[in-house]
Amino acid sequence: MNSTPSLWQQELNQAFTGSTELLNYLKLSPDLSVTEAENSFSLRVPLAYAKNMEKANRYDPLLLQVLPIADELNSPKNYLDDPVGDLPALKNGCLIHKYHDRVLFITTGGCAINCRFCFRRNFSYSDAQLTSKNEIRALQYLRNNPSINEVIFSGGDPLLLSDQRIEHLIQELAKISHIKRLRFHTRLPIVLPSRMTEALIDLFQNAPLPIIIVTHCNHANELSEQVKQACLRLKQTNITLLNQTVLLKNINDHPVALKELSEQLFACGILPYYLHILDKAKGTAHFDITEAKAIQLHQSLQKQLSGYLVPKLVKEEAGKANKTLITY
Ligand code: SF4
Question: Domains in the chain, please, with CATH?
Answer without folding.
Answer: 7-73 (no CATH), 87-325 (3.20.20.70)
